[in-house]
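ENTRY TYPE: paired fold submission
RECORD: A
CONTENT: sequence, then structure tokens
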Amino acid sequence: MFAAWGRLVVRGRWVVLAAAVGLVALGVLWGSGVFGQLTGGGFDDPASESTRARDRAIAEIGVRDVDVIVLYSSPTATVGDPAFRDAVTATLAAVRGRPEVAEVTSWFDTQAPGLAATDGHATYALVRLVATEEDAKTDAFRALRPALLAPAPGIRTQLGGNMPFLVTANELTSQDLARAETLSLPVLLVLLVVIFGGLVAAAMPLLIGGLAILGALVAIRLLTWVTDVSIFSINVITLIGLGLAIDYALFVLGRFREELGAGHPVPVAIEHTMATAGRTVLVSGLTIALALASLLIFPQVFMRSIGYGGTFAVLVAMAAALTVLPALLAVLGTRVNALRIPLGRRRAGGSTGCGRALPAHTAADRAEPELRSTVDGAWARIARLVMRRPALFAVGVTAVLALLAAPFLGVRFGGFDERVLPEGEEPRVVADRIRTEFPGGTVGPIDVLVSGGGAAAAEQVSTAISALPHVTGVGLAASRDASTLLTVTYRGEPTSRAAQDLVRRIRALPEPAGSEILVGGRPAADLDLLASLGGRLPWMVTLMASATLILLFLAFGSVLLPVKAVLMNAISIGASFGVVVWVFQDGHLADLLAFTPTGFIEPSNPIIMLAALFGLATDYEVFLLSRVREAWDASGDNTASVATGLQRTGRIITAAALLLVVVVAGFATGGIQFIKLIGVGMIVAIVVDATLVRLLLVPATMRLMGRWNWWAPGPLGRLYRRYGLREGA
């Protein structure tokens, strides 16, 4: 099947290349316009109590969330001074007349003590927008922003709250994305030239990467016609699309050069490449795509968007590596080695096909299949060294990985706040100043909607809440007919456990007769997010692991190897999670990495990492096992097969990991903390997986398992022989 696909691509190479050019044009001219169609939020569960509380408050009372906090301050004047008062009230009066604004609340209207700083030199106003949809709110805020600035000299205006935070986060994310691409692409090109030894071969992976990104952008724009998609999907498209496209191109191109080095003509080399490397790319791509698609089980638009972007990026990268790349190779032939860069002496042999020189094979090698049952080289020697003492290496490496993973046992989850932004960004400064300079000190009050029962029910609920621990005040936000909205302030951060415990206690209060209590606000939304993600996480893991087990069985005909692969993935990902907790929760290396530790981890971050890293770890596993299985089929010698597989893939897996680290490193240097967290976590996982796991732990465990590596009971064995995705088929 795969060899026939290679022949088909060779015959239709010009058609394939013409279609690729058309996709590039479509992506540049139309797909790139997707940025204007993406949403900026989507972090809430539509079915959660906090979301229902917000929607019911709008419907029953007409009260909307506070969208913008406008902080006015002066180092000399106080809020009661006429110059300060007149300038701010005139500004707010003009803002009230704007069509974007539903309501403005200020100290000058209410004399509420919480709206004036304790030293009297600052006050803040609460602005609610007419729009209810996030995209419309974003547009309204951008249009309103200049009007919020007090023009008087000596009065400083700073904007905080939900919409400034989201807009700032999106802007910084776009800047991080552009910087990551600017930093990584030149380094990638240099490394690819070093790996392949020539400019033409080095350009192939970058071409496939660009095609993967543009194709995914087209798919995402089509998807925006039927559902909301978050702007953060673009980050994962760039990261996964570029990284995996380079991986797949590296593997296919390396195998093609190996086939040419074995003396095969170009069409035969492409057939053999598709029958081996092409099959491996297909298995890897499907596995990673299914792992990322498991994110679609979550109701949050943000999580589903990461799943959409990652899945499309992987599928397009896989399709490009299986169609466009072999078509290019069919046209270029041996000219793929053109424009060589002299980087040292040509090596005599033992290459994996992705080194600086084509592998030299003896006549005996060419007479036999491309696979020899035994090979020599540095990677094979490492494998044999490990397999001489497999139990020692297995236990030792597992102990090291367990030590790295240990901090994850103390993980604490919480919602993100303004501290994910770099110091000095206005939304963060506003939040910090309100916490330290104002009575009540919170920018995330708890909203309690008492629906039905009228004033008596609201008074009963207010009295009960006031008696709860950590409550500093209960205020009447608004009321209409029989419904009342209460605002609860408290000690501590909105993301603290104390705030979440307070939400639980309020929800546990008895409801007055004829009324219903719904609790919303930021602490409630964070608590609901944890519950929503935690409830669906087991299903995600089950789907991801099941898909991996099935695909790896069809690829290798073994029952035990897929189970081992899932366990290896869990070990390497666990080590990454431990490092992330040690760094970002506990605050180690905070100065070096330039972030503010919050004492907790936002829960969606490790879930996104789990999906991406599980797929990437499986990618390397498939690369290695495909060559081991190829050697096993040729020799039937387990030890020699493992050594051969590692020798054939050691350089290519190391090169792929290095290139992917370069791609991810651009994100690790970003300004947004959760983007930085994902970048650092992925780098750790990639390095651990490509070294400790693939180089040491996998050979050790395969040596211990022996012939059981390839065991399958009778019915499953027959299923594999009939439907398996075998090498050379």
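RECORD: B
CONTENT: sequence, then structure tokens
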Amino acid sequence: MRELPRPCQWLAFLGPTLLFVAAAAAAAHPAEPKERVAVLVPIVAEASWRDDAFLSAVPAAAVLGNGEPIVLAVNAAAPWRPELLDFLARFAPARLLWVGPEAPEPPESSEPAAANLPSLELLKAASAGEAAAALAQAAWPSAERVVLFDTKDRGSALSAAALAARLGEPLLPCRESTPAAETLAAVTRLGAKQALWIGEAPPPRIANLRVERLGGALGTIRWLIRHGHAVEYLAAVNPQEEVAGRNRHLSLAAPLLAAGRFGAVAPLPYATRWKVRFAAGEELAEAPSGAGPSSASFRRGEIALEGHTTPFLTGRDPADGRFWLQLDRDGNGRFVGPEEQPMYTGEDLELWGGTFTANLDAEEAARGQAVWLTSPTAREIRADLDRFRAAASGRPRFLCLVGWPDALPMAVIGHGQGIDTDLVSDLPFGQTDPDPFVELALARFIAEDLPSATLLACRGLARDDLPGGDFRDTFATAEWERVCQKPLEAAGLRFAGHHDGGAPIEAASPLAAAGLIVHGSHAAWTVLGATYAWDSKTLLAPALVESAGCSTASLDQDPEHRSVAARLLRNGAVAFAGNTRRGVAQQDLFRSEFWNALLAGASLGEAQRRAQNRVLVAVLEQGQTGGGLFYYQLYNHAVYGDPALELGLDRPGAERPVRVEQRGGRVTVIAPERWHRFAYAPLPEWGCAFPELYSWRGAGTAVECSWYGPEKRNEELLYVNLEVQTRLRATMVEPIGKVPAPLGWTGACFIDQHRDGSRSLFFRVRMIDFDMTTGEVRAQVDRLDFRLLSK
């Protein structure tokens, strides 16, 4: 995982002959086997020097581990959590380093996972300077250059850790521009002649050391680009720990992820306000002057922040049932000014020089009875992310949003559907141009606390290297989810077992040892149905958990911040995908395309992007850009974890999926190698008259599902969602030949223009039609042909 040293990077430009010689030399003298090294840094609840010690440990661990920075923050008072011991047993480090004043007692001998751990090596330190010096001595006999960072500038400090790890150079702390005595001694011992200074303050002056000032995070990224280091991964994080609530330390996971993925940190220092509530408690007997029409009682309240007060009014639009907000900006009791007209959930408003997003639907039982405001707005966050993308020459592929919404807000989405109108989503942050399609491979990185966060990051970085990785070839299902079994087996994965429900799983369950867990049932943010709970202690393999349950991915509806997704990620899972609000049948389109992408070898974030873009095609095709069930599900899904995580699910022996062949302006779509029929019993609560329903699947196809009320069942249509990339100026497709209805092209085509001048044409076709009540195939084609057209 470690980058090539800069003197070697130019080899790639010298042609195939020299590359062949270099490859032959490498084969004759193979690289030394990677030594597994893990560094443990004890952390306390309050901000302390230990945070900076953790940052200095990131590049040291990367060097000691040949590019793999396995640095784990642990609770200083009780370090040996079961999930930590489980990871260390799987990772099997040859060396285990502890950075702190003294080493802890070893874990209890009764813990099986602790049996084969190496003895702790103490890097004795009682300050940031001592810790950095000890780490430098452990990892570098000498260094021509060091990286210096300002411990008072948290955004720059996070950026410096990722930079030093990418360069393989020691990271040493300074308080503003003043290096500690230990830092000066480390520079002397290393024999360093140069230094990079990361911080907005003036650089320190150190005898016999030439210091180059990079500035803050943006300057660091520009420096990387100028010196030939690509930045394809941005770890966006709020370094303002005082606003991050119970998760103040999660920011330290950002440089760990950026270092492991050859990226950079994008600090976003917001004084975040996440859904701050202002009650509209007073009911009015009659409408004030200028009030909008309302089918509900008019209610009045006040928005009071930082010494400012603005009265407001709420009501309900009789046309569409949406609650609205009107501000009495001049305080005259009337609502007649141009900035006093009704506004709705998801709209931005300006107050007292700040910008907020309005929300009137945050509590289902109290819609219109309060206003919830969020700052910064999604538009402001996107603008700030664009600055980092521009610094990286506009080329980042991955965006990792590190932290919970109370530190880095999700976007509040406008009216979607009457089920849960309070939609929140990260999707807008993956859009980088005016068209609606998603460009960035995106995921949000959450954890219960810092030890959980660093463990999750390291688990993902090391997943491919964990010995005894049988879990990678297995999957398990839970409760209602059974239809995925044959498609996943056809993809080359082994079925480990099923959990019927009843009680949450325990260690002996096949789900605990599987690399994939697919779940469906009634659920909530505290429970994965009857499969797992927010307080479960059952440890898992490094698995992806994917759930069709309602609200399993919700991070903002529980006053105690309980989350079954966060607990799964703490106890062993590497990623989670699910609904932030209640799920509907239309979610199957996202789910099936998410799995199609993963089975084709996509990373976690790439799979999310593919699934979102294909749901967006359904939204556009069905005219639901202002609301509807596909619009709702477009914003309802969330993926948590490292967006660059690769699960390695593309198996050589898998059945051939749908294939697309493109020759110039001609496109041919070839059906999957096999079609599979499934039978399943509808849920009793549906009241369906049919005892059994039938569905069909083919590798690479997508399921569009909706509720069919007359027969009280789901109705499934199987589509092939196509993205044809081309440099032709094509704007439309034309079918070649005829096929029986309703097969073939649906007639709609949408364009995503790319930064490099190419474009993608998105359109959908059907290759099989079937009856769900009998299982009969009514029509089927093996191939479809199209030509690309330009107006």
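NOTES ON RECORD B: The first strand starts at residue 37 and ends at 43. The longest helix spans residues 604-621.
STATUS: closed
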